[in-house]
Write a structure and sequence with these properties.
This protein is α/β, with parallel strands linked by helices. The protein folds into two domains: 2-127, Response regulator (Rossmann fold), CATH 3.40.50.2300; 136-232, Arc Repressor Mutant, subunit A. The protein has helices spanning 11-24, 36-46, 62-70, 88-93, 106-123, 161-171, 180-188, 197-214, and strands at 2-7, 27-33, 50-54, 77-82, 96-101, 135-138, 141-144, 149-152, 155-158, 218-223, 227-232. It binds a DNA duplex through α6 and α8.
DNA sequence: GCTCAAAATGCACCCCATGT
DNA sequence: ACATGGGGTGCATTTTGAGC
């Protein structure tokens, strides 16, 4: 049974998430906090496996909270729960294992829990194990967030920062099509203002690297007039 | 802290594919 | 045939990191 702590400044959101976690029969909620400052002082004692964290809180943002937690010796899997998708990249920069949008979909939550359990099983670590780097398994990819490396089919892919961000973003949403300007905005966190040439160059480089490493296990497909999507074989 | 080299990123241009 | 969208290449600029 995984131990979880929920931090959210809305009591209803906490109750809803707690109920869903209890129904999953695989997660035990050992702490609930409305105030992130209270949570911070207690979380090191509780030593949870998973931390469900709201991003938009009055006293301290979830991103800021996660950064503070990262500085401690105890590593836990952080799952951000928010109503806003634009926080996604920032969230993953602070070791988020997953990112769930409100209103929470129960099946999506179960998948997240399963993935965390699988990951912990694979890596063989318990709640108090210190990892060298955070590994996120998506499809046939293993993303090593801290080193910026990606492993696919036992082959290591060396990517630049932007290439990693693009691939990481697309891999989390396989089959979903993103218009170049939309993708640019999400990765660069600013409007492309019609300038997506840079993105095209990175996509081109990624394709070459993906093909040499994985053959056709995963590829970035252009849907003419609509955008790019990542497909797994 | 400075310098220099390497890597990353961005941009311009050209070519190709597709739709009309 | 033409217009448009997309991909590839080469070069310029910026950023990063190592060495001193």
């Amino acid at each position: 049974m995984l131990k979880a702590v929920i931090v959210d400044d809305e009591i209803l959101a906490i109750h809803l998430l707690e109920a869903m976690l209890m129904e999953s029969n695989s997660v035990d909620v050992i702490g609930k906090f409305l105030n992130p400052l209270d949570a911070y002082t207690n979380i090191l004692k509780l030593k949870p496996d998973i931390l469900f964290l709201d991003i938009e809180m009055a006293e301290m943002s979830g991103i800021e909270f996660a950064s503070k937690i990262e500085e401690t010796a105890h590593l836990m899997d952080i799952v951000f729960v928010t109503a806003y998708e634009h926080y996604a990249l920032e969230a993953f920069n602070v070791q988020a294992v997953d990112y769930i949008l409100k209103p929470i979909d129960k099946e999506r939550l179960i998948k997240t829990i399963d993935r965390i359990r699988q990951r912990r099983g694979k890596l063989g670590f318990s709640a108090n194990t210190l990892l060298d780097e955070d590994i996120k398994i998506i499809g046939s990819f293993h993303f090593h967030v801290h080193s910026g490396r990606v492993y696919i089919a036992n082959t290591s892919l060396v990517l630049s920062t932007k290439e990693f961000q693009i691939l990481f973003f697309l891999a989390q949403r396989p089959g979903q099509i993103f218009h170049p300007s939309e993708l640019y905005k999400l990765i660069w966190a600013e409007d492309s203002i019609g300038q997506t040439k840079a993105l095209k160059v990175h996509i081109s480089n990624l394709r070459k690297k993906l093909e040499s490493a994985s053959g056709h296990q995963a590829k970035i497909v252009t849907v003419r007039g609509y955008g790019y999507q990542l497909l797994f074989e």
